[in-house]
Every structure is written in C-alpha cells, then in structure tokens.
Amino acid sequence: MHEGEFFLVKAEVLPEVFVKVMEVKRLLSAGKADSVNDAVQRVGISRSAYYKYKDSLFPFYETSRGRIVTVLFAIEDFPGILSGIINCLADAKANILTINQNIPINGLADVSVAIETDRMNSSLEGLMDRIGDIPGVRKQQIMARD
User: Fold this and answer.
1) What is the pLDDT of residue 34?
2) What is the pTM of this model?
3) Which regions of the chain are under pLDDT 50?
4) What pLDDT shows up at residue 30?
5) Residue 100: CB atoms within 10 Å
6) Torsion sign, CA atoms 79, 85, 91, 97
7) Where are the domains positioned within the chain?
8) What's the rounded Cα separation, in Å, for the pair 26 and 62?
C-alpha cells in the first residue's frame, strides 16, 4: 500500500465506525447538527473516533470536486421550482455552465444542469440532498463527470 492511495469500497463491508464517521460528516455538511459533539452523539460514536478518521474518509461524490458535473432533476410543473434549484446551486457557489429543461409531460419536466464544482463551499452530496429537499423536486441524480 502506498501513502495517498485511494480505494473505492462499498459501505456495507466497512467497519461500522467508518460508516458512522461519514454520517457525522453528512450531518455537519447539511447543517443538520449544531456541532461535532451534537453529531457524534446522534450517530453513537466518540469525538476521538470521528477526529481519528474524518480526514481519511470521503464520500464518493467528493471525487467530483474541481470537475464539471452534469446533474439531472425530475421536477413538478409549477412556478418557482427551477428558481429554487438555481438559488441552491448559487448558494453552494457552483458555477452553472448550462441548463436544459424539457417540456413537462404528465406534470413532470426533466432538467439537466452542468456545473463546475471547484469553487463550491459544500460537498456535491450535500448540495444534491438540499436540492432534493426543495418541494416539487421528485428525483435528482448525477449523470456525468468530466
């Protein structure tokens, strides 16, 4: 094994502490915990376990930092949803390169957005979670990474 080498591993095969450290990181990045202490208590690990592993574990989405990512959303057909998505992207400092929206069919429209992630102030995973919380966003997924 070489220092700095990375592996892509399914969460199911990892020791539970690693999965819980990632949950703490998710709570913190999504603003769903007030502090590290609050987050570690909620997931059931010690602060020392969190600090021991936090800089060595990254969600798969973070491998997209500094890249161009295309995301796809299925949204309900009512005013303001696309504006909410764009505002969420702007708040995260994602640089929007293109936006394509299809005509709604059966009350749903597909929207694809290409963004640059290098100046983002949050993880791509956290951003996708926040967009998924917007009323009317039915589905969100990453389609491509350059």
Assistant:
1) 86
2) 0.57
3) none
4) 72
5) 11
6) negative
7) 11-57, 63-145
8) 12
